Amino acid sequence: xxxxxxxxxxxxxxxxxxxxxxxxxxxxxxxxxxxxxxxxxxxxxxxxxxxxxxxxxxxxxxxxxxxxxxxxxxxxxxxxxxxxxxxxxxxxxxxxxxxxxxxxxxxxxxxxxxxxxxxxxxxxxxxxxxxxxxxxxxxxxxxxxxxxxxxxxxxxxxxxxxxxxxxxxxxxxxxxxxxxxxxxxxxxxxxxxxxxxxxxxxxxxxxxxxxxxxxxxxxxxxxxxxxxxxxxxxxxxxxxxxx
Amino acid sequence: xxxxxxxxxxxxxxxxxxxxxxxxxxxxxxxxxxxxxxxxxxxxxxxxxxxxxxxxxxxxxxxxxxxxxxxxxxxxxxxxxxxxxxxxxxxxxxxxxxxxxxxxxxxxxxxxxxxxxxxxxxxxxxxxxxxxxxxxxxxxxxxxxxxxxxxxxxxxxxxxxxxxxxxxxxxxxxxxxxxxxxxxxxxxxxxxxxxxxxxxxxxxxxxxxxxxxxxxxxxxxxxxxxxxxxxxxxxxxxxxxxxxxxxxxxxxxxxxxxxxxxxxxxxxxxxxxxxxxxxxxxxxxxxxxxxxxxxxxxxxxxxxxxxxxxxxxxxxxxxxxxxxxxxxxxxxxxxxxxxxxxxxxxxxxxxxxxxxxxxxxxxxxxxxxxxxxxxxxxxxxxxxxxxxxxx
Lengths: 243, 391
Fold this sequence. Notes:
The structure holds 2 protein chains of 2 kinds. Chain A is α+β, with helices and mostly antiparallel strands.
């Protein structure tokens, strides 16, 4: 087919638009993934966390998290003797680049990785006026960015401070548990980057998942259990001072 | 920032515009409840303010959603709240409460009350004005005694429905905050009740001020019986409101749960001026004492007028400070209870002080227009004089 100059001029803008889609790529499909066969959570082993910040960096890279905001972060706790109600906590830049020496002596120090708890009875999904934030059948709390009004009620309702307002998208934003990865049989970016195995993705519906044996042999806890949110981030070695 | 905040908490999410929103809806609910006193409870003394209170409520209700709209990250999606509401969300259901109140209660009640005047003005005016009034009649020109009687009965029914609706309107705003279990500053079952009574206080104070100002502008004599009665209601409602707020405070102090030290620190530092000075001493105790004095001592008319105007102005400041302390105060401390942040209000930004000031002035501009179109006073009103002649 021979195109004349007029036809080329007409086709060029269409080709430019089409090229954007070519560059963006087609979203990968996960045809073998059955949502009803999974129930996702995570095991966070405080006794193994060294506060290196690899998880925070990996998350930021994988999910294009804007600077100054965090889908996951690491807190450093310093607890003097019996003063568990007055811990000293810091998290410089979310622990992204690790932690400088604290200079504090005595007491105990430990690191606590934090992320969305993907609660079963999540206060954030309850308050969303349009249902833009929702539960997937496999137990993950997600946000529909094309639907979110940006009212920020969910940010207020999250007891763990896990949500933020995306400065460019102007919607609420949070950890997706790397849903784009876990539905393809991969683990989350933070779990993959953790050098000590302090974070382990867990499929609570899979009887072969090592989480079940771990839960049987260890004393685990969730954050703020009194709020009855049905949090699915299980912490091993969680100190009573952790908020 | 002081102490430790979760990293995403450093930025405040709800600005001065969200302070305005409960303040404005509170004024609406309060003004309407005052208006319904005359209609339902036959408190004849407040009759001169009946229509003015309704128009004031409408002017503020029209502006009430604007601060929310300005605040949204995607205002173009706001209608989704009506089209695909999430029924478990307090905020989504509030949209319907608002719409119900605006369409089914306030607009209908005003229209029924003004229908005779509108018809008469449509007949007596000319040009564009005539077209406007013809439009406002909605095609209903029957002002026979029988039709007016029906208007009156339906109007009374709407007011009866309107009182619980006004309670719902502002009680629900309190629920939006009171149901957030993540935030101990907000999470209390008393919140809707406190919001409701503070709404009544602010609405009554507003109508009192608007009535005094309109009388001054029109150079007419203030009906002192009306003013005294409004001031009396303001005083009694204020006593209940203050009691509820103190009950909440005493309960928090005595219970002293895990959040108490954090909240206590805030009240003594970051919120000291807005809570202790502006809200409690200046905006509550002072007007309460002043209004209380007028109930028990005999003052001249002139002094009473001054006391009422001063007390009502302080009341407005106090209620605004209360909204500020709830909305902004609730975000100044970390949900870890280990740190505090500050709120820096910008001036010329979408959520800054300037739009807030404009949104506070706008209801008065709308009220001015409404009063011009639908004069709330009987004397000197052409339509009323004509109608009285017809009657």
